[in-house]
Amino acid sequence: MTSVLKGGFGSPNSAPLGGPNLGTEFVNTICPLKGALDGYDNSLPCSRQTISVPAKFRDAMAVREVVFGEQGVPLEAEFDEDDARSWHWVAYASVATHSTSPPKVLRRADSANTPADDARRASATATRVPVATIRLIPPPHGPNKYVQHHETDKHPDADPPTHDQEHKQPAEPYIKLGRLAVLAPYRSLGLAKLLINAALDYATANPDLIYRPPSPTALEMAQILGHQKEREITWQGLVMIHAQANLQSMWEKHGFHEQLRNEDGHVEIDAEPHWFEEGIEHVGMWKRLPIEKRKRLSLSSLESA
Q: Where is the composition biased (Low complexity) (predicted)?
């Protein structure tokens, strides 16, 4: 029998009284793993991946496989080409147990764990187990994958179909949040909010990591062509999600809306038609993060540097 230890969750900036900042104790940030995921086999569960797949990423996949598996998402659709270039966040719970083994649903079945992995998760009184995750996909985003019905991406947060739509994606770069998953026993603890804020705060603070800044030459040419062209080659804080319709109100609490308006109230991005994936209604939603002007790369900032 397991139970969550008091204090198992905290804000990324929390710290014990009089002690060092331990904000990463229960939320891990995973930077793009790129080639480290080359050997990932999407026909196998995370517990059967090779030891070359980083343990933290397998933690994220353990949560995703459980949550989206419950929704009928095929295993082979869970890992995709965006995972290697994305940032991932994983929230952990300290779970009291009589043994040092994680709950059965997340227990690793392979022998890939190192002693360091086990020591990181277990102590005499508790085990640290992954219970929630989210990912952030940076620009660029390719064309929709729904060319024909049989080629449809089977995951609920995949790009929507293009048929019967005149909606156009914005020309400027945008990031995409997705694969938000929280294990059922932990869904009333504010973990979704914790992870969403962690991802958005990271993006706001690190715009040049999220999207590689253009060269001074490219910026100069964009300025000659006008403000809109410059906007098309720099990330201006635009974020989108493909939300399950029943969770739309939750995303609205985080500032996302189907129709994006600027500070003057003018429509920047129109709402698009809803669509269904695996029988689940979905909706596209947008938000613009308040990227600090000093963090936005521009020609003027380059000239003054």
A: 122-133
Question: What pLDDT is attached to residue 233?
Answer: 67
Q: What's CA 288's distance to the chain center, in Å?
A: 16
| Helical ranges in the chain per DSSP H | 55-70, 115-121, 191-205, 207-210, 216-225, 227-233, 248-252, 299-304
Enumerate the domain spans of the chain.
Answer: 3-304
Token readout for 149 is: 């019905």
DSSP letters for 87-145:
EEEEEEEEEE-SSSSPPGGG---SS---HHHHHHHB-SSEEEEEEEEEEEEPSP----S
Distances, alpha carbon 40 to alpha carbons 34, 84, 168, in Å: 11, 10, 33
C-beta of residue 30 within 8 angstroms of C-beta of residue 56: yes
**pTM for the full predicted model:** 0.74
- Pairing verdict, β 238-244 and 175-182: parallel
Mean pLDDT of all residues belonging to the chain: 76
Best-predicted range by mean pLDDT (84-88, 124-128, 218-222, 260-264): 84-88
Matching CATH number, 3-304, of 3.30.479.30, 3.40.50.620, 3.40.50.880, 3.40.630.30: 3.40.630.30
Are residues 5 and 96 in contact, defined by beta-carbon separation less than 8 angstroms? Answer: yes
As a whole number of angstroms, the distance between CA 81 and CA 85 comes to 8
Per the model's pLDDT, the better-predicted residue between 86 and 216 turns out to be: 86
